Amino acid sequence: MSYLRSVARTPRMAIAAVVAALAVSLLWLPGGDGGVRLAADTPGTPGTEPVSAPLRIVQANIKSNMSTAKTKADIAAAYAQRPDFVTFNEVTYRPDSWLAPAGYQLWRTPGAFTGETPVAWNTARWNMVAQGTWMISNKLRKQPSKEFELGKRYANWVSLQSNIGERISVVSTHFAPRSGYTKDQIEPSFKRLALLVDQLRAHGPVLVGGDLNVNYRAAAEYPRTTVTALGLTPVYDVTGTALPTGMYRNSTIDYILLASAGQYTVRGQSVRVVHSDHRQLTADLALTGSSASAFSPGTVLTDPRTSPRAVTALMVRSINLAPKGAVVHLATRDLKMAAVVKAIQQARKRGVHVQLLTSGKKVSPGERTLIKLLGTNVRKKSWVAHQRNWTRFHLPAASSLVSASGGTRALRIDSNRPLVKDAHKVATRAVVTIDKTSYDSLFVPFFKAAGRPL
């Protein structure tokens, strides 16, 4: 069969048999030596859990009365670590332009009390989907005073979604000091923080960074039982090492809290001496288990102004994260995207089977490259096929159907635009599903359009 010739329609009896097989057994289907893998037969790595790409968070208390030069130097020190997230303290009167350099965004509610604890994130990977400010304590002086109300504290938080659908919430907070009229505010502050975290964790893992003004290493001060009961886990609990963060007496008063700890792997922690009276605390983490899946059900949007390559990155990631033995069924009306061609080439080197279906009027250079790599025999495990009558089979403009990728089985991504080089210039919508029903409902028309006998 010529590559450019529209493929013949598969007999109805064959299609009926496939549907029956899907419904009854979801086992390997015959078809010569071709690789046809259904949702129930996705490969994985036995005995291991999926792990996300690394995450880095920096907790930075920037002493409020430092000079401009020292303040900027400390901020630069935090960003020199190329973090995903930064939680700041004591920066009420520092402008956002200082706190969020190019490539980062910042959230806080402006104000003398609410603006002290902003959160910043790396926009190359993360986009804000929700945000807010939460009261932690409101202990006021008994007598009116012009002095600063040390007991009035807030947390700022953001819920973020990565360009491939990962979701996490990050909270920045700063507890009142354990002295004077606020000496009894530590436990109530933990409880207020936990109320916020409980609301956020319904949408995914939560990270908290902040100066909590209680020494982790002082058994008489740190309310371990309360913190554990609230489901908050300091990174120190996981590593077994409490790092000195306060320059005064080397106390451990800055924290990075995990909620829930079982959703993370802690890869390391460190402190860095800066000009402030607090060392900067850094934790290197990864999401694990179901939280580590690179894909979550929902919609990913390309906005030419803010996230021009969101859908492209999503499609490429679905191929890049497919393990050896997985099958990628990729359909696109046209293929003129070098990143996709490269991802397919690398996937084949890893032992991933790739089956590509296109419909362009002309064969693009990328397609010719892939024809040489994959061949055009649709009875094989990897191939390239062409179908000019695209609408007849009700296929999306582009779709990635992957048996296993990024910790997800039965991944399906449908885009309303084909995979072409200018796709990032227009608004594009991709829908992600990770259930067998959605996966299998596209499986049959994909093979029918390719002329693959089943």
Describe the protein.
This protein has 454 residues and is an alpha+beta fold. It has 2 domains: 12-48 and 293-450, Endonuclease, Chain A (2-Layer Sandwich), CATH 3.30.870.10; 55-291, 4-Layer Sandwich (Deoxyribonuclease I, Chain A), CATH 3.60.10.10. It has helices at 12-24, 68-79, 96-99, 186-200, 224-229, 235-239, 310-320, 338-350, 365-374, 436-450; strands spanning 55-61, 85-89, 104-107, 119-122, 126-139, 151-162, 167-174, 206-211, 233-234, 254-259, 264-272, 280-287, 298-302, 327-332, 335-336, 353-358, 383-386, 398-405, 408-415, 419-420, 428-433. The longest helix is centred in the middle third of the chain and has 15 residues, at 186-200. The chain is elongated and about 80 Å long. InterPro entries: Endo/exonu/phosph_ase_sf, Endo/exonuclease/phosphatase. GO terms for molecular function: catalytic activity. This is Endonuclease/exonuclease/phosphatase domain-containing protein. Residues 75-278 form the Endonuclease/exonuclease/phosphatase domain.
Concise synopsis of the structure shown:
InterPro entries: Endo/exonu/phosph_ase_sf, Endo/exonuclease/phosphatase. This protein is α+β, with helices and mostly antiparallel strands and 454 residues long.
